[in-house]
Design a protein that fits this description.
With 465 residues, the chain is of the alpha/beta class. It contains 15 helices and 18 strands. Helix 2 runs parallel beside helix 13, helix 7 runs antiparallel to helix 14 and helix 8 packs across helix 11.
Length: 465
């Protein structure tokens, strides 16, 4: 641990460059290496908020050429084409991009229910994939994506960009190195007071001009267009996502797995409901999920009420027997526990009183002064975007060229979102879910096990590998 201060004090740009080189050189070798001067030709599937942001990153990268963009909403396609100054071809169906032989890799930045199908088909078409988090809509989809990546020797990066942030790497180093001692509890949270309106209750209506609503729904059940089921707010409907547990929870649980060196919980238990908001969402606005792991517990809380006493709207706390460590996207801080060597407990004092029959005469001996069990640490001012997001995309591009596995490989993304899916299943069944990670099956609950997969609306199916 002696050199952590030196690393923390490094210029963040230098750290990112070093991290990118290290990450690109770590994973198993997957196949032939591209030439050093070869530009990676990419297609962007999904041009909403995240897709457009990734597109801007690729446009700035001299090693990348954006050749195609796609979205079911034509105004988004037109905007993306303008960003490329007309150099990219615009499409309304992602399969047109997969048919192109000149495209090396695709970014899948669609709503969650549309992640697995294009990602697997892309692997089968010989293309590498950067897939936004949460990686999947069901547990079955994740395992199928891993199988596709391995069978077709594809590079598949999960968009868990915190894996490329230097201060998250630092707190992983501190925790794994025992800096705060044995960690028995990890708490993570998101708080945002949107009461009472939330996302509102807009009526169903005809879809806006230029939107292929049927293709947007894709494998999801047929339903009339509603503004809240489109773009950002789709996250609050079960047909397309898993609410905050799979949206923000995926980021938190990724750090839990990384820092604690685990890849699956033993069980999940959840409780909550729609207690605050008066809108048309389906997912809970108040939720507490408890995950048991070997040797420790992790908890995730989301609520739409006051942030007090948390103060910060999101974050994580690791509780060790030497201190606690807080981290969010802008900072981390270690709070040492204080303990006096040789201090006696109340039981010792009571036993002494019973032996002597009276308190000891004379002045009380000096009380041992408490001392910190570790040193306090505080680092602030980190920025996740754009430098970390660019580093995460760069890691993907580097691995496309080197054929190494990326820092947030598809197996990592699958294991992380599996934990989140178990939390959702625990909430929706109202039962504690026990998980057999080796078999990837829920133990002793056939109804819950059926929820690890879903029925696709024809003609869409989960591709076989």
């Amino acid at each position: 641990m002696a050199d952590w201060r030196r690393i923390a004090a490094m210029k963040r740009r230098e750290f990112l460059k070093r991290a990118a080189v290290t990450a690109a050189a770590t994973g198993p070798f997957l196949g032939s290496v591209r030439g050093a001067n070869d530009r990676v030709v990419v297609g962007q599937i999904g041009c909403g908020a995240r897709g457009y942001y990734e597109l801007t990153i690729c446009q700035r990268n001299p090693n990348v050429r954006v050749a195609a963009v796609c979205d079911v909403y034509k105004p988004l396609v037109d905007r993306a084409v303008r960003l490329t100054e007309g150099q990219a071809e615009g499409y309304g169906d992602f399969r047109r991009i997969l048919d192109r032989k000149d495209i090396d890799a695709v970014f899948v930045s669609t709503p969650d229910h549309w992640h697995a199908i294009p990602a697997i088909l892309a692997c089968q078409a010989g293309k590498d994939v950067y897939c936004e988090k949460p990686l999947t809509h069901t547990i079955e989809e994740g395992r199928r994506m891993v199988e596709a990546a391995r069978k077709y020797k594809g590079v598949v990066q999960t968009g868990c960009q915190q894996r490329s942030a230097p201060h998250f790497a630092k707190i992983v180093e501190l925790i794994r190195g025992g800096y705060i001692g044995k960690v028995a509890l990890v708490e993570a949270w998101n708080v945002g007071n949107e009461s009472p309106e939330g996302i509102g209750k807009p009526p169903d209506s005809p879809p806006p001009e230029g939107l292929d609503w049927d293709l947007y729904l894709g494998p999801a059940p047929k339903t009339p267009y509603n503004r809240n089921r489109f773009i950002w707010n789709y996250r609050w409907f079960w047909d397309y996502s898993g609410g905050m547990m799979t949206d923000w929870g995926a980021h938190h649980m990724d750090i839990v797995h990384w820092a604690m060196g685990v890849d699956a919980p033993l069980s999940a238990l959840a409780a909550g409901g729609i207690f605050c908001l008066q809108d048309n969402r389906e997912t809970p606005d108040t939720l507490t999920t408890v995950f048991d792991y070997p040797g420790f517990q992790a908890r995730y809380t989301n609520r739409m009420t006051s942030a007090f006493p948390l103060v910060r709207g999101y974050g994580m706390l690791f509780y060790g027997d030497r201190g606690a460590l807080f981290v969010d996207r802008g900072s981390y801080e270690v709070y040492p526990d204080m303990r006096a060597e040789g201090a006696r407990g109340d039981v010792d004092r009571i036993q002494e009183l019973l032996r002597s029959g009276q308190p000891a005469a004379g002045p009380s001996p000096p009380r041992p002064q408490p001392k910190p069990l570790c040193e306090a640490v505080k680092e602030t001012g980190f920025r996740l975007d754009p430098p970390v997001q660019e580093a995460h995309v760069q890691n993907f591009i580097d691995c496309v060229r080197s054929r190494r596995r990326p820092v947030a490989d598809v197996e990592i993304g699958h294991r992380v979102i599996t934990a989140c899916h178990l939390g959702v299943i625990a909430y929706r069944t109202g039962r504690k879910i026990r998980w057999d990670a080796k078999q990837e099956k829920i133990v002793g609950d056939p109804e819950a096990q059926r929820m690890t997969s879903k029925q696709y609306r024809a003609p869409w199916v989960l591709p076989k590998v």
